[in-house]
From TrEMBL:
Signal sequence extent: 1-20
Full protein name: Uncharacterized protein
Keyword Nucleotidyltransferase included in the entry's annotation: no
Organism: Pseudothermotoga lettingae (strain ATCC BAA-301 / DSM 14385 / NBRC 107922 / TMO)
Keyword field contains Phosphoprotein: no
Annotated keywords: Signal
Length: 367
């Protein structure tokens, strides 16, 4: 009883001292926020107009005051999925570009002033390919996504290693008789951890697909996890003794909930937990906030406020430390978040509010 009381007190104290600011940017059309990066002068929000495919980069100063909306152009990507910052301050963008009704992997590199430095389509054979996640390395980049062969009806998960000039060093596909794809790649220490979705290697509907590849592209191990219904891994982070893998599941609750999986470094499943908040909760990302403190962010159904952004903080056992729901009228859909200091997170997403198209969300925790 005493223990429970202490836990609730700590929870209330921490929750009461998390403050949030939401800043809407009116872009006048239908836009999607893709990513946020931290710069010397402030922040950059990358997004895409849904109708025209125009990519834009909005700069903000450190007080989150808008500096400029920069248009990158409409022709580069039909679907922007990835924005990464290179060590020499370039922006690396990818996703897919439709050519003759087939999705192709396009790479777009910009300098820090958003001038196009490089743009090309990766020469990958097959019908459709796309990138959902990229990992920049010292000697190039590794792309993770999906692939469909010419005449094929199903997707395979796809992993491609390129050098800095965009030359393909190796590429790997992973799949069975139904659909697979990767949603996230992270550096796994001595290789690459790629997580996503499998429909081939499951008795029911989709399961988590968790794979580990060597740096030369050899599949070292793979695992699936989930229940009878839909389970899809979307994010992961490395921990001291293995990996935490986050996904979406409706196998264990009557609504969508985050499913968190802990594996050791060889892929053995240590535990799995459903983060059941008794309402629809669509997780979008998992980040290490502080040592042994992890943040899952996403969107939660919150009654008359409709969807709201939620940040929940978990210890290394996946147990709830505290949570913060940011209540705003109408729908908010967070897409991406980064840690900007030991007690601050900034995220970005899209809102269905009329004339409130994309937003920044700033969360500060005070102890
Ligand atoms: Ca399943
Ligand atoms: Ca809302």
């Amino acid at each position: 009883m005493f223990k429970i009381f202490l836990f609730i007190t700590a929870l209330m104290f921490l929750a009461a001292t998390a403050s949030a600011r939401v800043i809407y940017i009116d872009l006048g059309n239908s836009e999607e926020a893709i990513s946020i990066t931290q710069e010397d002068y402030g922040y950059v929000l990358f997004g895409q107009h849904r109708n025209t495919n125009e990519i834009f980069a909005i700069t903000f100063d450190k007080n989150l005051d808008l500096l400029k909306i920069n248009s990158i152009g409409e022709r580069f990507l039909d679907r922007l999925n990835v924005v990464e910052k290179t060590p020499d301050n370039r922006f690396f963008l990818s996703g897919n570009k439709l050519l003759l009704d087939q999705a192709k992997i396009a790479i777009l590199e910009l300098n820090s002033y958003f001038v196009v430095l490089n743009y090309f389509i990766l020469p990958v054979s097959g019908a459709d390919q796309w990138v959902e996640s990229a990992l920049l390395t010292d000697d190039g980049y590794v792309l993770a996504g999906g692939h469909r062969s010419i005449g094929g009806n199903w997707y395979d998960a796809l992993l491609i290693k390129c050098d800095n000039s965009g030359k393909i060093i190796w590429s790997k596909k992973f799949g069975g008789s139904s659909d697979e794809w990767f949603s996230k790649i992270i550096d796994g220490g001595d290789g690459y951890l790629c997580v996503g979705s499998t429909e081939s290697y499951t008795k029911g509907m989709a399961d988590f697909l968790v794979t580990f590849f060597s740096r030369t592209g050899k599949l070292i191990w793979w695992k699936t996890a989930g229940g009878e219904k839909w389970d899809r891994a979307i994010s992961a982070t490395m921990v001291n003794d293995g990996f935490l893998i986050l996904g979406l599941s409706n196998s264990f609750t009557d609504y969508n909930s985050p499913l968190l999986l802990k594996t050791d470094k060889s892929g053995k499943i240590i535990w799995q937990k459903v983060l059941d908040l008794k309402t629809e909760f669509f997780p979008k990302g998992l980040i290490e906030f502080q040592e042994n403190l992890y943040c899952v962010y996403g969107n939660i159904w919150n009654g008359e406020n409709r969807f709201d952004v939620i940040f929940i903080f978990l210890d290394q056992n996946g147990d709830l430390v505290f949570k913060k729901v940011i209540e705003e009228k109408n729908d908010q859909n967070i897409n991406s978040s980064i840690i900007i200091s030991k007690n601050e997170i900034i995220g970005t997403g899209s809102s269905d509010n009329i004339s409130k198209d994309v937003f920044l969300i700033f969360l500060e925790l005070k102890e």
